[in-house]
Amino acid sequence: GAGVSQTPSNKVTEKGKYVELRCDPISGHTALYWYRQSLGQGPEFLIYFQGTGAADDSGLPNDRFFAVRPEGSVSTLKIQRTERGDSAVYLCASSLGLFQFFGPGTRLTVL
Amino acid sequence: KQEVTQIPAALSVPEGENLVLNCSFTDSAIYNLQWFRQDPGKGLTSLLLIQSSQREQTSGRLNASLDKSSGRSTLYIAASQPGDSATYLCAVRAGANSKLTFGKGITLSVRP
Prior knowledge:
The structure holds 2 protein chains of 2 kinds.
Chain A lengths: L4 E3 L2 E4 L5 E6 L6 E7 L6 E7 L2 E4 L8 E4 L6 E5 L8 E8 L4 E3 L3 E5 L1
Parallel strand pairs in A: 2-11
Antiparallel strand pairs in A: 1-3, 3-8, 4-5, 4-9, 5-6, 7-8, 9-10, 9-11
Chain B lengths: L3 E2 L4 E5 L4 E7 L6 E7 L5 E8 L4 E4 L2 E6 L4 E6 L8 E8 L6 E3 L3 E6 L1
Parallel strand pairs in B: 2-11
Antiparallel strand pairs in B: 1-3, 3-8, 4-5, 4-9, 6-7, 7-8, 9-10, 9-11
């Protein structure tokens, strides 16, 4: 595709459930980033992949959050035992150099 | 730890006005600085990127400047239009492939 795509666009779940958020980067982009944006805030870094490996996961808030990129393309962000505080827009970006190109985000609501 | 500040949080101006949006950062050892636009419920659109060795970048009615030593950047918007209404975010990067550190953004409203 022409840009970064994220699915689903919206996800509503109940407290304690498991969710998976998917990111399809721009073809050929080796770097992939996940950010989380809460209402009224700027995006906050979660994790960065270079190829298949997580080069920097310092932004993951706790061990309920995990992300994979098994073939160096699509990435999945996984959240276990969701909490109401996890409600936010989860943004994915991919990059081949200077610019990070952002997807439209997944709005996660935990009831 | 790098911190990026954007003040004020919101700004309302009449159409046609020239305006300046400010961004400050605490650690001057940056690789580049980027300005983004975000429309409600949408992702981020990159407007301008300034490398650490550069002083400014221009695109159409937009001009971004960078004073790395003082930890400041400004985004100048000339002849503002209602279509410029959006949230403008500033972000800095410490290295070539490192994360972006964002400010909270400035929500701009341009009144017709």
